Amino acid sequence: MVGSDSRESCNADMRRYWIPPEMIEADEVTLTGDVLHHIRDVCRMHKGSKFEVIVGGQQKALLVEITGETKHESFARVIESRVIEPIPYPHIHLALSIPRFPVFEAVVEKAVELGVYAIHPFFSEFSFIRKQEDTWAKKVPRFEKIVQSATQQSGRGDLMPISNPVDLKQLLETFNRTEGTKGLFAYEGDARLNAKEGVARVANPGLKEAWIFVGSEGGFSTTEVESFKEAGLASVTLGQQVLRVETACVALISVLKYDLDLMR
Questions:
Q1: Residue ranges per domain, the chain?
Q2: pLDDT for 96-113, tens place per residue?
Q3: Are 159 and 56 in contact (CB under 8 A)?
Q4: In this structure, which CATH number among 1.10.10.10, 1.10.287.110, 2.40.240.20, 3.30.565.10 belongs to the domain 16-83?
Q5: Exposure check for the chain: N or C terminus, fewer CB within 10 A?
Q6: What pLDDT sits at residue 15?
Q7: String of b and e for 66-97 (b: at least 16 CB within 10 Å)?
């Protein structure tokens, strides 16, 4: 659910919120719980206020006006509806060796805004955590909250999924089983391709999924690099400067979107 989060904007120019579909019946929206708290108490939307709500799982947005309020509910009528276009093909999948959690949160937010289809965290030799443990599970609600906040801020129609973390070997097996999939990984060791050349290698008319593998703060080991090559992934460099994890993700996603004509 939406809560009061420093990442969320209550700017009057935005006025867009994510709500679950069960809050809608016919042409009326009933706001309750954390959603109500955010809209009423945090963003000060009361009777007569108009704003847009994104309906979870339905790829649509509704322009609504609050018509009534009680202590625990606000009621809004639907003024008009619009369809939100789904994420276009090829879908971008970001596979990320788990970095420090503040870094991961920053990547999650930007990935939602940039239209990444899904994030796949994985354990590697240099990942921040090296195995499944309670630490990750405790962070999941926070990650989901960031996804929801970025979704309503950007006007995206779906909530970007974050997979449960797995070992790199298992993730590469999943990658290899997916038809119409190509990928690349960011690596400075012996990368022979720049990002544009790497994208050209994966782009083809039948491409359905484009995967990007990015390391955590320690990068990838030589053994992991060999595993990527065996899986058919192209290694690419992002230039002479050493980039932070979050910067590398944004740069690579942006190049991929531009060269695959996904910025339309």
A1: 16-83, 91-259
A2: 999 999 999 999 999 999
A3: yes
A4: 2.40.240.20
A5: C
A6: 79
A7: beebeeeebbbeeeeeeeeeebeebbbbbbbb
